[in-house]
């Protein structure tokens, strides 16, 4: 049903409904704060870029960085734990292939793959930014709409944050003034059909760090301000991140949600990092993508993905 090389996939509505049903049943058994033990790989926004998703799934690090063109007996997708930070769909032209691939991997390797919810895994957003239209085009109006509704039902059950080794907190958007302990996330009730119904979940999917040029970014007091750019949720400054890390007794916050020229960017004295995994985003920019590797000992390395064939770079950061 799903190939690990690039080819136009053809799915029947029956296949898609069955895949969604199986995946949703797994989500329903998972906590709102998913957990994973290192070593593992953290992946940011994919946005329908199927070729890049396949590259990511087959990346190795250290002296063995490679992508799917270099065949191995056992590819990375079958031997590595992955935590995805959401935004699988919309923007790119292969959202259906991307979400089917990660859902299939979740069914095949349920404990090996954590799929977090991004803001594009919400009905109001993927109605407007490509996923719904792609399903209608590929399946026809009636079947496409039915499958789209079913996918969004599954999205409503997805975990909203993940914790790696008890020390690295991951989410799609960012921190929140409503986040005072990890139990706050654990206590989030799902399904969340309308993300606006839960303020903490909304921020975990939507919030952003204040730009370094903002006068409030380096304020000595923790600050959460209205997110004027998004029109909902909040922005937060460096001190808010540092206070959150101390309060939750963690080392690092890993989030996605924003395109970064180099695929990643640090914030708050390296207490937070943004990871964006879609190089040459929407075929409109020359940005790199990036993924984050967490070793068994807690060392963190960043693999950058260039927007060209065989383009994989490696950058190391040790915590």
UniProtKB/TrEMBL annotation:
One term of GO molecular function: protein serine/threonine phosphatase activity
EC number in record: 3.1.3.16
Any one GO cellular component localisation term in the record: cytoplasm
PROSITE patterns, per the entry: SER_THR_PHOSPHATASE
InterPro entries, A to Z: Calcineurin-like_PHP, Metallo-depent_PP-like, PP1_catalytic_subunit, Ser/Thr-sp_prot-phosphatase
Catalyses which reaction(s): O-phospho-L-threonyl-[protein] + H2O = L-threonyl-[protein] + phosphate
Annotated signal peptide: none
Bilayer-spanning residue ranges: none
UniProt-listed Pfam families: Metallophos
Keywords: Hydrolase
Residue ranges constituting the Serine/threonine specific protein phosphatases domain according to the UniProt record: 116-121
The family this protein is said to belong to: Belongs to the PPP phosphatase family.
Protein name per Swiss-Prot or TrEMBL: Serine/threonine-protein phosphatase
Organism: Caenorhabditis bovis
């Amino acid at each position: 049903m799903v190939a690990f090389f690039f080819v136009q996939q053809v799915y029947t509505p029956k296949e898609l409904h069955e895949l969604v049903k199986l995946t949703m049943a797994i989500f329903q058994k998972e906590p709102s704060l998913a957990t994973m033990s290192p070593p593992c790989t953290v992946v940011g926004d994919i946005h329908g870029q199927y070729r890049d998703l396949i590259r990511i799934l087959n990346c190795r690090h250290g002296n063995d960085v490679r992508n799917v063109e270099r065949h191995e007996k056992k590819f990375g997708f079958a031997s590595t734990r992955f935590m995805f930070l959401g935004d699988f769909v919309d923007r790119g032209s292969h959202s259906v292939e991307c979400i089917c691939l990660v859902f299939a991997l979740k069914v095949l390797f349920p404990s090996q793959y954590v799929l977090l919810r991004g803001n594009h895994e919400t009905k109001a957003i993927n109605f407007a930014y490509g996923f719904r239209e792609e399903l209608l085009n590929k399946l026809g109006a009636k079947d496409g709409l039915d499958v789209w509704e079913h996918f969004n039902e599954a999205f409503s059950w997805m975990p909203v944050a993940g914790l790696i080794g008890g020390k690295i907190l991951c989410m799609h958007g960012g921190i929140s003034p409503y986040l005072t302990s990890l139990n706050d996330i654990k206590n989030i009730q799902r399904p969340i059909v309308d993300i606006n119904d839960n303020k903490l979940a909304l921020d975990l999917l939507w919030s952003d760090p204040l730009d370094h040029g903002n006068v409030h970014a380096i304020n000595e007091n923790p600050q959460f301000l209205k997110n004027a750019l998004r029109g909902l949720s909040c922005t937060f400054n460096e001190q808010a991140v540092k206070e959150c890390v101390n309060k939750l007794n963690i080392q690092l916050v890993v989030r996605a949600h924003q395109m970064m020229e180099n695929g990643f960017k640090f914030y708050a004295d390296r207490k937070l990092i943004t990871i964006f995994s879609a190089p040459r985003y929407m075929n409109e920019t020359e940005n790199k993508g990036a993924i984050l590797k967490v070793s068994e000992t807690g060392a963190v390395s960043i693999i950058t993905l260039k927007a060209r064939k065989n383009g994989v770079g490696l950058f190391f950061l040790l915590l």
